[in-house]
Write a structure and sequence with these properties.
The protein is an all-alpha fold and 96 residues long. It has one domain. It is built from 3 helices and no strands. α1 packs across α2, α1 packs across α3 and α2 packs across α3.
Length: 96
Amino acid sequence: MNALLLSLFATTGGLALSGIVANLYRLLARKPKSSPERAFYLGIMALAGPSVLIDNATRSFRRKNCSSVAYLFAICLTLYWSFALGWLLIALRRHL
């Protein structure tokens, strides 16, 4: 039971981190134009990716531009990515 709760906590923590980073980036940044800006964008997307992925997949699914299998795959990938981010947060917290 502890492992399940820790996994759920890691997943929700990772998704929360992703949402915060994605929304801050949308508010503060502009479209990347130079190579360093693109590198920074890719680094930010490593953290903001789950939120951006589920947002784009949901929008596409509602417009009937993707199948339910593709949408389910996007949901599973988002959950896994969020879990990995959350696990990194937990590991960082344990080391500090």
